[in-house]
């Protein structure tokens, strides 16, 4: 799995010249950079331009969080968003768009990363730089999801806005599934998520 986050060697950029602010995650002690970090190094963009969500991503995340707040039992579950950090182990830190955790398993709020994997993780698009690596989008999705599943997460949902598809990886299934936006996606208890319905209710086209 180490190969997943190794930097493209022929890029000419040495890891010790890349500012820490451009690190999105750590896998097995090695940095995973934000998508587009090379443009920042080249002086073509500012760090904020690659670290911030796009208009589509931010709108969709807001819709999902609003739906969750009005749907699930918030006395039983806690919702976190805004690229919450999760420390799985030494050298393994992940970024998460939306995390749903059982309150009884949730540590006291602090200024540190989460230490306990959420019950449900929802990701909107890929923010990590994978260009030039020996894997594609689907490989990254599966490997990051497997890290979460191995740490106790029950459901990982990846929403890809460009292809309007959703990848669902669960701890009770041997393989991940690809579903369409208009399909109901199981979250937890008796709650489901339907991306198309959310967008239609708000009159948003993606």
Notes on the structure:
This protein is α+β, with helices and mostly antiparallel strands and 206 residues long. It folds into 2 domains: 2-50, no CATH class; 53-202, tt1808, chain A, CATH 3.90.1570. Helices cover 24% and strands 30% of the residues. It is built from 5 helices and 10 strands. It has helices spanning 37-41, 47-51, 55-71, 137-150, 195-202; strands spanning 23-27, 30-33, 77-89, 92-102, 120-124, 155-160, 165-170, 177-180, 185-188, 191-193. The strands form 3 sheets. It has a 6-stranded mixed beta sheet with strand order 3-4-5-6-7-8, sandwiched between helices. A two-stranded antiparallel sheet has the order 1-2. The model is unreliable at 1-12 (pLDDT under 50).
SSE blueprint and pairings:
Elements: E1 23-27, E2 30-33, H1 37-41, H2 47-51, H3 55-71, E3 77-89, E4 92-102, E5 120-124, H4 137-150, E6 155-160, E7 165-170, E8 177-180, E9 185-188, E10 191-193, H5 195-202
Parallel strand pairs: 5-6
Antiparallel strand pairs: 1-2, 3-4, 4-5, 6-7, 7-8, 9-10
Helix fraction bin: 10-25%
Shape assignment? globular
Query: Based on DSSP secondary structure assignment, what is the total number of beta strands?
Result: 10
- Strand-pairing-aware structural class: alpha+beta
Q: What is the string of SSEs from the N terminus onward?
A: EEHHHEEEHEEEEEH
In CATH's first tier, which class of the largest domain applies? Answer: Alpha Beta
Protein name: Uma2 family endonuclease
GO molecular function: endonuclease activity
Keywords: Endonuclease, Hydrolase, Nuclease
């Amino acid at each position: 799995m180490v190969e997943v986050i190794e930097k493209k060697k022929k890029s000419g950029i040495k890891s010790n010249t890349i500012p820490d602010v451009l690190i999105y995650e750590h896998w097995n002690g090695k940095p995973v950079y934000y998508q587009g970090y090379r443009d920042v190094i080249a002086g073509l963009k500012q760090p904020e331009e690659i670290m911030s969500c796009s208009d589509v991503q931010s709108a969709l995340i807001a819709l999902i969080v609003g739906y969750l707040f009005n749907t699930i039992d918030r006395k039983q579950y806690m919702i976190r968003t805004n690229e919450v950090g999760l420390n799985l182990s030494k050298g393994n830190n992940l970024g998460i768009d939306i995390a749903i955790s059982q309150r009884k398993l949730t540590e006291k709020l602090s200024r540190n990363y989460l230490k306990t994997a959420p019950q449900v993780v929802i990701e909107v698009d890929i923010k990590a730089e994978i260009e030039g690596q020996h894997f594609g989008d689907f490989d990254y999705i599966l490997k990051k999801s497997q890290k979460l599943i191995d740490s106790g997460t029950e459901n990982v949902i990846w929403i890809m806005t460009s292809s309007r598809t959703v990848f669902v990886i669960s701890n009770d299934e041997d393989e991940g599934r690809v579903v369409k936006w208009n399909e109901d996606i199981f979250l937890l208890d008796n709650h489901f998520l339907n991306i198309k319905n959310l967008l239609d209710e708000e009159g948003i086209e993606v």
